[in-house]
UniProtKB/TrEMBL annotation:
Domain called HTH lacI-type: residue spans: 4-47
Source organism of this protein record: Paenibacillus azoreducens
Keywords: DNA-binding, Repressor, Transcription, Transcription regulation
Superkingdom as given in the UniProt entry: Bacteria
Xref: PROSITE patterns: HTH_LACI_2 (PS50932)
Gene3D superfamilies to which the protein is assigned, alphabetical: 3.40.50.2300, lambda repressor-like DNA-binding domains (1.10.260.40)
Protein name: LacI family transcriptional regulator
Gene Ontology MF: a single term: transcription cis-regulatory region binding
């Protein structure tokens, strides 16, 4: 099979080679829709396949030894506004990665660059052992890493265009246990809050929620429910929409008895809205989160949530990356790290409501 060229992609789409080059490099000058079309076509035609790689890492052997200066792992965290080392969630994952890399005597280079052309400039393939991507990462960046032949593992993210190892919390099963707990407390009007298109984790949590409600014969929100497509779940932009929604349901005497929030950040903002509108938690409505960030234990009331071992996810990503380098032909894996329920004061039995 011959190497796929930019000209072939251009001919396939009916655009110029210049447009394809700009789109694949992440540079400006092309619209978002055009860039996505080019990336999709490039993937379909095999531009990012192994046949098109132009650099290949050497597998590790038992006798391999590296110093931080000789071999480092890139940690790609491009969403710098929210995915930072100081984050209550992402920072813990980074701690786990750093701890395991240090134990292996490997260096770590954190990269926050989101443009492909700038990202390529910071790469030194000769000194790179592999890459761990943390959180949301644009397809164009991942595709370029794949084309370079750099082994990579993604944490809390996956991309349909890129076959790679991934590490997630066990989102679906954990939310299923959480919902079964609420049902055991007598709740039958349970609402999911989040954006099911925001991330794979949110979508898996929604699937776990929906499965349990269906199994128990309870009504589930339809996919056009606005509470499943909240705007700005990472910024708090959704707050006015949620406030209007909950007040309308309260006025109509149709308020749910429990809210299952896609993560703790959403849940903590929901608690504030309910408090400001004198809706008592948990005696009028129960609220749950997911992740067990530090602030979940400091809220008023304290938040019932799902504890994710964030450091363990980071450590497991490093372990998987080293396995991938040592055994490049092994089947790809989606690793699920177990999570557990944390019962606090934001939930109560229906008999108390």
């Amino acid at each position: 099979m011959k190497k796929v060229t930019m000209q072939q992609i251009a001919d396939y789409l009916g655009v110029s080679k210049f447009v394809v080059s700009k789109a694949l490099s992440g540079k400006g000058g092309v619209s978002e829709s055009t860039r996505n079309r080019v990336i999709q076509a490039a993937s379909q035609l095999g531009y990012f396949s192994k046949k098109n790689t132009y650099m290949k890492n050497q597998p590790l052997t038992k006798n391999s030894s590296f110093t931080p200066r000789e071999k480092s792992v890139i940690i790609l965290m491009p969403n710098t506004r929210f995915q930072t080392k100081d984050s209550l969630y992402w920072g813990k994952i980074l701690e786990g990665i750093s701890e395991r890399l240090e134990a292996k005597g490997l260096g770590m280079v954190i990269v926050s660059e989101s443009r492909v052309d700038h990202f390529i400039n910071v790469l030194n393939p000769e000194g790179i052992l592999g890459m761990i991507g943390v959180g949301q990462i644009d397809s164009s960046l991942l595709l370029e890493v794949h084309r370079l032949g750099i082994p990579m593992v993604l944490v809390d993210h996956e991309d349909s265009l890129i076959p790679t190892d991934t590490v997630f919390a066990n989102n679906g099963d954990s939310v299923a246990r959480l919902c079964n707990h609420l049902i055991g407390l007598g709740h039958t009007r349970i609402q999911f809050l989040g954006n099911v298109e925001f991330s794979r984790s949110f979508r898996d949590r929604w699937y776990g929620f929906r499965t349990v409600l269906e199994e128990n014969g309870l009504e589930t929100p339809s996919l056009n429910d606005p509470m499943l497509m909240l705007r700005g779940v990472d910024t708090g932009q959704f707050v006015p929409d949620f406030e209007a929604w909950i007040l309308a349901h309260k006025k109509a005497h149709q308020m749910p008895t429990a809210l299952v929030c896609a993560n703790d950040s959403i849940a903590l903002r929901v608690l504030e809205v309910l408090k400001n509108n004198e809706i008592d938690v948990p005696y009028e409505i129960s609220v749950t989160g997911f992740d067990n960030i530090d602030d979940a234990s400091r809220s008023e009331p304290t938040l019932t949530t799902v504890h994710v071992s964030k450091e363990a996810m980071g450590r497991r990503a490093v372990q998987k990356l080293i396995e991938r380098i040592s055994y490049p032909d092994q089947a790809l894996e989606k690793i699920l790290v177990a999570a557990e329920l944390v019962h606090r004061d934001s939930t109560a039995s229906i008999s108390r409501i």
